[in-house]
Amino acid sequence: MAAGEEDETERIRRPSSTKPAKKNARKTSTGRAGSRTSETKRAARRVSAPRAMRYAAEQLQELLGRAPESVSAVKPTEDGWQADVEVLEVERVPATTSVMASYRVTLDKAGELVAYERTRRYARGQIDRRS
């Protein structure tokens, strides 16, 4: 090699500590690499009731832009979960006159929201009368 010439192999060689990225690895929702088969199995498994309650409240908040006050009911269905979520719609003073709404939220087995509907509106201080 003559003076002033560079060895091309040295210029394009990667440092030995750099490893090429795996092409077939896929990150799951937990951030770990997994296969498509494990993701399918996870999606087929029903989430727990407490997790379904959390997911219902979080996803409804994303859609409505209002923070849910509580989840008043949750029950398993054939296709996943159904939850009733209470949301503050109109804040008033005194707080007992604030307008609340109850939403029925339908989740699939993995906890993803598939539907919701407002089932009732009521004053916060209102008590349901049993017949």
Short description:
This protein has helices at 8-12, 36-44, 49-64; strands spanning 26-27, 33-34, 68-76, 80-90, 99-108, 113-123.
Question: Could you characterize what this model shows?
Answer:
With 131 residues, the chain is α+β, with helices and mostly antiparallel strands. 23% of the residues lie in helices and 34% in strands. The strands form 2 sheets. It has a 4-stranded antiparallel beta sheet. Strands 1-2 form a two-stranded antiparallel ribbon. A hairpin with a 4-residue loop joins β5 and β6. It is elongated, with a radius of gyration of 26 Å. The termini are far apart. 11% of the residues are buried. About 24% of the residues have low confidence.
Helical fraction: 10-25%
* Sheet with the most strands, sense and barrel status: 4 strands, antiparallel
- The total of helices stands at 3
Low-confidence stretches: 8-38
| Count of extended strands | 6
Major sheet: order of its strands? 3-4-5-6
Report the sheet-strand fraction: 25-35%
Q: Give the averaged pLDDT, no decimals.
A: 79
C-alpha geometry:
elongated
Query: What is the H/E order?
Result: HEEHHEEEE
CA-to-CA gap between the ends? 99 Å
Radius of gyration, in Å, reads 26 Å
SS class = alpha+beta
